[in-house]
Structure formats: C-alpha cells, structure tokens
Amino acid sequence: MTRLLTVDGLKVDFPTRSGVVEAVRGVSFTLGRERLGIVGESGSGKSQTGRAIMGLTPANARISAERLNFSGIDLLDVPARQRRDLRGKRIAMILQDPKYSLNPVMSIGRQIVETLRAHETIGRAEARDRALAMLEAVQIREASRVFDLYPHEVSGGMGQRAMIAMMLIAGPELLIADEPTSALDVTVQLEILAILYRLVADRGMGLIFISHDLGLVSSFCDRVIVMYAGRIVEELPASELANAEHPYTRGLLNCMPRIGADRHPLPVLDRKPEWAL
After folding, report:
1. Which letter, b or e, does each residue of 218-246 get, where b requires 16 or more Cβ atoms within 10 Å of its Cβ?
2. Into how many domains does the chain fold?
3. Burial environment of residue 274 by CB neighbours within 10 A (0 to 12, 13 to 18, 19 or more)
4. CA quadruple 70, 44, 84, 172: dihedral positive or negative?
5. Nearest Cα to Cα of residue 93 among 216, 206, 235
6. Structure confidence by residue, pLDDT tens digits, 13-25
C-alpha cells in the first residue's frame, strides 16, 4: 500500500496564563490510500491532530514531531508559501459545520471557483463548468441554481455537500473530514458517507475521518485510532472495533444506546488516570 502520510511523535501545545495545555501528546500513525477513522471524546485531540497536519493551528500553538511527512514532503520544514500551495490542492479538510465554514457573503459557486483558481491557471468559464460538474458529483440537483445561492439559502445537508465539492475541486490526494456529518440528520449522513466512499474509491485518495460516533466509524472506515487525552490508546481494524481490548474503548462502546435493551440510566464512562499516561 502506498504511504501518503507519516505522523511520528506529533505534539501540539498551547501556552496559557495558567500553564501549557498539551492538546496532542506524541501521536503516531501512517496513512495510505484508505479510510482511517479517529475517534474519542471532545477534547481528546482529534481535531487538533487534523489541523496540525493541515497547518491550520492558531499562531500561538507549538507543534513538534519526530516526523510529519506527506508524500515525501516534510510538513514541519516546508516554506509557508509551499504549505499554502499544498493546502487545498493536495491536502484538503472538510470542517464540521458548513454554517461556520462557508463565507456567508459569497455565493456557493463563487467560493468553489475561487478555490479552483487559487491552485490552477484557468479561465472563469472553464472554472464555472468544473464547479458545476463537482456539484453534480456530490449529488446536488439543479447545480446551476445552487451555484448562485448563498450559504443561508441552502439546507445543512446541501451546505455540507457544497463544502465537500469545494474541498475536492482541486483534486487532493489526502482528505481530512472533521465530523462532516455531526450536524446532519441520519438519512443525510448516509448520503454524505456514500459520496465520500465513492469519491475516495474512484480517486484513490487517503481519508482521515474524525468522529465521536463509534458505530459510524466501524461501518465506514478501514482502520480506527482511538484517542484519549491527546494520546492514541488503541488502534485496530474497523471491523474489529466491537472486540476492542482497551478499557477506554470498551467504556465508549458500553455507553452507546442499544435498541431493545433496558439501559436506563445509560452507563457513565469511568475514566482512569493511567489512561492519560
């Protein structure tokens, strides 16, 4: 399997008045042309791991790693301009909620065209045609009408499809999806996952799928990484997630509701201090 990304000993720290917050503490993994799920509670370091790979952490963050390599490029030493060229063109990230990720004063089509023209020398007419084709690829009907709409004029599901179209328009090799379905209802979630599955398979991309939904990740991804307090506590094939051995993963699985089972009240995760060591 071709290795797209190597992360070795990644750390992300945030200096504060009350001390240093260690958001990511020595995370290591590799990614090929596959679907890798990263799961854990809020605050476990999932999103900060993805943002560090993208180079989207706040200016006050301190990032270090023994190795952070994408397709032979050292992401820690790459010049800022080259990093900007990579972002959107070869590495893209779908953020969590389109209401906060899309520019409210620009039409959807204009935002997609802007993304494409930032990375390719292309005329407006051709850029529009490719944007319309990408909107159709993410199963948006009446693409020409949606092209001229503003983010507030579309539903959450359509906004998320538009975000996916914008991130895929330049043909990235690596896609990071940060809880792309968390704000959507179940039926729309399945449609978005089907789109991502097909596009990853057809384009041969690598996908990092960040989520707190263990059931979703187990059915969609190839491998799963479980994070707690900024560290990876377990890594296993997604098909074997139900047989996880780490007590934290077992606790997360045990807290999930089960149809037909008497689980009132739902179990509460009993966190152990040693899990964070």
Report:
1. bebbebbbbbbbbbbbbbbebeebeebeb
2. 1
3. exposed
4. positive
5. 206
6. 999 999 999 999 9
CB atoms inside a 10 Å sphere around CB 194: 12
Q: CA 172: distance to chain centroid? A: 13
Closest CA to 130 of 165, 86, 93: 165
Q: Domain holding 62: CATH number?
A: 3.40.50.300
pLDDT in tens, 52-83: 999 999 989 999 999 999 999 999 999 989 99
**Has residue 143 been placed in a domain?**
yes
Query: pTM for the complete prediction?
Result: 0.90
Q: Are strands 223-228 and 35-39 parallel, antiparallel or unpaired?
A: parallel
- In a domain, residue 126? The reply is yes
What would the two tokens of residue 36 be?
């890798």
Alpha helices in the chain (DSSP H): 46-54, 80-89, 98-101, 108-119, 124-137, 143-147, 156-168, 186-203, 214-220, 247-254
Q: Is residue 277 part of a domain?
A: no
Which residues form the domain of 63? 3-272
Residue 153 DSSP SS3: helix
How far is residue 117's CA from residue 59's CA, in Å, rounded to a whole number? 27
